[in-house]
Write a structure and sequence with these properties.
Length: 153
């Protein structure tokens, strides 16, 4: 893929053109991202200790659903988020967030290491040393997102 960026001080509004030979999955992702760019936020709104906070997407290590409530975990705090897990998954699937189990989504930028584990699971050690299991059901999607889904010979 070739990316061409042109700064033009004479235009009023930014214009994005996507030129492609074939409309494939990569092109569809780019189109989807551009169409939904304004909807995507750079932060979550969460509450903790009776206060409401804006939490940057890059601050969240993982998001977990417990008893029909959704919590975002940062290095310092746990926030209750006003979203359902599936809403977060749908909204941020093109970013570095990926579901790893029925009740958990991780921020791939906060993963320190991954280690294969018993039964096809993967053990993720986060930058804060917390350990999370990626269920075997979600492991293929993780490998694909990381570019590790190549065929073996």
């Amino acid at each position: 893929m070739l990316l061409k960026l042109i700064e033009n001080l004479k235009i009023e509004n930014t214009k994005v053109t996507v030129e492609y030979k074939e409309q494939n999955e990569q092109v569809n992702k780019i189109i989807y991202f551009l169409e939904h760019l304004e909807e995507m936020e750079n932060s979550f709104t969460g509450s903790a200790n009776g206060k409401i906070f804006n939490i940057g997407l890059d601050e969240i290590f993982y998001i977990e659903s417990v008893d029909r409530k959704t919590f975002g975990y940062t290095a310092e705090e746990v926030y209750e988020l006003g979203y359902k897990l599936y809403e977060i998954e749908e909204r941020y699937h093109l970013m570095d967030y990926i579901r790893i189990s029925k009740s958990c989504i991780i921020n791939l930028k906060k993963v320190h290491s991954l280690k294969p584990d018993f039964g096809g699971k993967i053990l993720a050690t986060m930058e804060n040393r917390e350990k999370l299991y990626i269920s075997r059901q979600y492991a293929p999607a993780l490998k694909e997102k990381l570019g590790l889904g190549g065929k073996r010979r």
